[in-house]
């Protein structure tokens, strides 16, 4: 049986360790590049969404909404969700192309939820798409609103929208969703002195109004 000299065994082991280290480093580098690329795409989509919401969208911003100009590579989940919201917004102001835009918006939201099934913001986006497509009192929109509350009882950015939507369809909400809406409104009111009146204004005159005030009184006592 051949015997390898100690120095040769050490050299072979060192080469193996170095090869493993280089492979690990290469893998880490590829992962880092992928993460940076994905984050860059998310940031670009987020900035485009902000400009669209402010009525300042550029032609490049709106080009990403056209299915014919898209690459086959799927977007990162957050970017897909942002694009879905952008398409839904565009559909609300472009009746001629609303149907096609809502089909693509629903596909974007579905892609986001396939990656992260329990995602409150994505369910809010789904509720918005279904509201535009089927009406505010549609079972699809109301089911998505309820799902958003199950996934995330409190949402900083989407709370005002879903509270307004919820009180508009209050009679169609189940008891659990109503309770979560009241809790979120009270939470928003207590967030700061500046949000107190704003939060109460979201439910003013609705059946949720006295429930929110009662919840606030209970929490302060």
Number of strands: 0
Distance between the termini: 86 Å
- Output mean pLDDT: 84
Biggest sheet record: none
Query: Helix count, per DSSP?
Result: 10
As a percent range, the share of helical residues equals over 70%
- Strand-pairing-aware structural class: mainly alpha
Name the overall outline. Answer: globular
Oligomer: single chain
Cα Rg: 25 Å
- Low-pLDDT parts are 27-34
Structure description:
The chain has 221 residues and is mainly alpha-helical. It is 76% helix and 0% strand. It is built from 10 helices and no strands. The termini are far apart. Residues 27-34 have low confidence and may be disordered.
Brief summary of the model shown:
By secondary structure, the protein is mostly helical. Helix content is 76%, strand content 0%.
Features:
221 residues, 0% strand, 76% helix, mainly alpha, globular
What layout of secondary structure does this protein have?
Layout: H1 6-53, H2 59-63, H3 77-93, H4 98-115, H5 120-134, H6 139-151, H7 159-168, H8 175-191, H9 193-203, H10 208-220
Helix pairs in contact: 1-3, 3-4, 3-5, 4-5, 5-6, 6-8, 7-8, 8-9, 8-10
């Amino acid at each position: 049986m051949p015997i390898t000299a100690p120095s040769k065994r050490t050299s072979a082991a060192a080469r193996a360790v170095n090869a493993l280290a280089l492979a690990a480093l290469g893998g880490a580098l590829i992962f880092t590049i992928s993460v940076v690329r994905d984050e860059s795409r998310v940031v670009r989509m987020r900035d485009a969404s902000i400009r669209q919401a402010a009525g300042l969208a550029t032609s490049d911003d709106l080009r990403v909404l056209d299915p014919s100009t898209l690459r086959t590579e799927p977007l990162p989940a957050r970017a897909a969700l942002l694009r879905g919201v952008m398409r839904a917004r565009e559909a609300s102001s472009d009746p001629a192309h609303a149907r096609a835009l809502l089909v693509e918006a629903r596909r974007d939201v579905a892609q986001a939820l396939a990656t992260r099934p329990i995602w409150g913001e994505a369910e809010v986006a789904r509720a918005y798409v279904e509201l535009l497509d089927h009406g505010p009192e549609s079972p699809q929109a109301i089911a998505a609103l309820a799902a958003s509350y199950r996934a995330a009882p409190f949402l900083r950015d989407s709370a005002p929208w879903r509270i307004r939507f919820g009180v508009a369809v209050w009679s169609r909400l189940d008891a659990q969703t109503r309770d979560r809406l009241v809790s979120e409104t009270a939470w928003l009111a207590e967030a700061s002195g500046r949000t107190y009146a704003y939060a109460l204004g979201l439910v003013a005159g609705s059946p949720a109004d006295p429930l929110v005030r009662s919840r606030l009184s209970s929490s302060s006592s």
